[in-house]
Amino acid sequence: MRGPVVVVGDTLLDRDVEGVVNRLCPDSPVPVLDETAHVDRPGGAGLAAVFAAAQGADVVLVTALADDAGGARLASLLTDAGVQVYPLGLRGGTPEKVRLRARGRVLLRHDRGGAAGTPGEPSEAALRVIARASAVLVSDYGRGVARQPALRAALAATRAPVVWDPHPRGPAAVAGVHLLTPNESEVRELVTVTPGATRLATAARGAQGLRQRWRAGAVAVTLGGDGALLCHAGATPMVVSAPAVAEGDTCGAGDRFAATASLALARGALVSEAVQEAVAEASAYVAGGGVATALPRAVRPLPPAVSGPGGERVGVAAAAGVVSTVRASGGTVVATGGCFDLLHAGHVATLQAARQLGDCLVVCLNSDASVTGLKGPDRPVIPQGDRARLLAALSCVDAVMIFDEATPHAALSWLRPDVWVKGGDYAGDGGEPALPEAEVLRRWGGNAVVVPYLDGRSTTGLIAAARSTGTAGPLDGPPLTDTVPPAGPAPGGASARPGGEPGRARAGLAGPTTTEGTR
């Protein structure tokens, strides 16, 4: 493959709630489900991307994420599954589908999230990654991403084979796609077919009508356990039967089919070969237990919000409120992150300098589990709840969100800050920032900057001194190693902006930057 497999479309948050039913509700003749377990997973385009990544592909997902807890959860799940997220903004809430299940059967599906929101503009990096893709899968769930004009222009211009999995509420595919992958019911909604014909004849007529209307190379209509029917320019369709009749949970089978076909085309397969491989893979997926057994291990739930003094500024909801308000007014979102174990003057100076670069500062704080994984069993010294409260009490900090992973990449994919700040000792020998987060920031046009650190302050040194002497005072030692290296105090106070105007990122004031401009 010459480039990544790119998935474009709407991502939902799916939750399966498992339970047992032993009684009826006393005030209504409906079963009562006693929950025993639940699992979250990406749905829609996110599920297709996870399937592709699980098969070893380099996968990019261009999707819209909302400024809410659901969006943060999706960012964690996708990053944990090895998917590179190129996020668009999303006005409105995260769409969620909750399936209530007992003994492997779905009793009820509860949808929430409201009407489809409006996706934001894609970054130049997102458009470039579509141009260099080895294959593109458009996974349309009718919520607006496939309608985005700039994305549609990029999809029409790419030389990569494009697979389009349509939705009746979505737009027409761009002209020239290699393969459309609707199911039977979608074909009947998209194309008017004369009733009374056999199942295969109805599928074939609908597929040919859709192929001609959308000027597609081929259409593969999925037929559930009976395989798929492939229609192309020739007059005779091809029936690809499933290798065996598989009964089970079919949730996600269409996404599995489309993802497999896309991977096959990326490797240079013919469309007929790609459809045969997709039928076999989707059938094996259902027979093997479906989505419950096919996905990688889920990441831990989001760390809970901190209650008590300062708690209103800690957690995903707090960060979402701050970020959405600043974005609505056209301001600049700044973020920084680290362990912040034993908060000291160097930390405060860095945070003050970071806050001066924009209109809000969100601190991404490593959870206790994350710190232990990075620093060893003796760390952190201060638990995450106390560390979060101390940071939230600073006037230069607008919100704190805690993350469990070893890196803040998932949190950044959700926050989409305009500026990410680290200390000056992260600059490389050539003067360029050696920041692993810089590449992530480029996905949405963000900017990674470094600021000078306040020398002679080190959490590690403070801990060592306290353990050896019983006191911890000003120490000489290496610059901070466990969090954002500190910067000199910012003039004008922790939260002041000169002239009171909305702040914009000014890379020249902070040190070397990436080549991407702020959005």
From TrEMBL:
Compositional bias segments (type: Low complexity): 492-512
Domain of life: Bacteria
Domain Carbohydrate kinase PfkB: residue ranges: 5-296
InterPro entries per the UniProt record, alphabetical: Archaeal_FAD_synthase, Cyt_trans-like, PfkB_dom, Ribokinase-like, Rossmann-like_a/b/a_fold
Start and end residues of each stretch annotated as Disordered: 468-519
Signal peptide: none
Keyword Cell membrane set for record: no
One of the record's GO molecular function terms: kinase activity
Domain Cytidyltransferase-like: 336-427
Keyword annotations: Carbohydrate metabolism, Kinase, Multifunctional enzyme, Nucleotidyltransferase, Transferase
Protein name: PfkB family carbohydrate kinase
Native organism: Micromonospora reichwaldensis
